[in-house]
Amino acid sequence: MTKEELEEKLQAELEWVKYRLRMLDIMEKKLYQMRDVAQKSAKNISAEERNDLNKKIKWLEMQVNALDEESRHE
């Protein structure tokens, strides 16, 4: 492998790491949102409100899983 090829490979890996870090930051924000929703659900709320909060948590979970899966692959 030539020096130029190695530099290109390392640059590509660096870009992937930067991308992965951005996705992890987004996932972290969504996890905090999930925590906030879970804390709200711990309060005395109606069954309808609880159902709405559960839907929101499931939606956020799907987003986190999709971001994780997408950003794992170069």
Low-confidence spans: pLDDT under 50, at least 5 residues?
none
Structural class: mainly alpha
Give the topology string: H per helix, E per strand.
HH
| Number of structural units classed as domains | 1
Taken as a percent bin, the fraction of beta residues is under 5%
Q: What's the pLDDT, averaged over the residues?
A: 93
Largest sheet: none
The best one-word shape is rod-shaped
Gyration radius, to the nearest Å?
19 Å
Instruction: Please tally the β strands and state the result.
Output: 0
Span from first to last CA? 20 Å
Give the fraction of residues assigned to helices.
over 70%
Q: Treating each run of at least 4 consecutive H or I residues as one helix, how many helices?
A: 2
In short:
By secondary structure, this protein is mostly helical. It is built from two helices and no strands.
Q: If you had to describe this structure to a student in words, what would you say it looks like?
A:
The protein has helices at residues 3-41, 47-72. Helix content is 88%, strand content 0%. It has two helices and no strands. The protein has one domain (3-72). The radius of gyration is 19 Å and the shape is rod-shaped. It is mainly alpha-helical and 74 residues long. The model has no long low-confidence stretch (mean pLDDT 93).
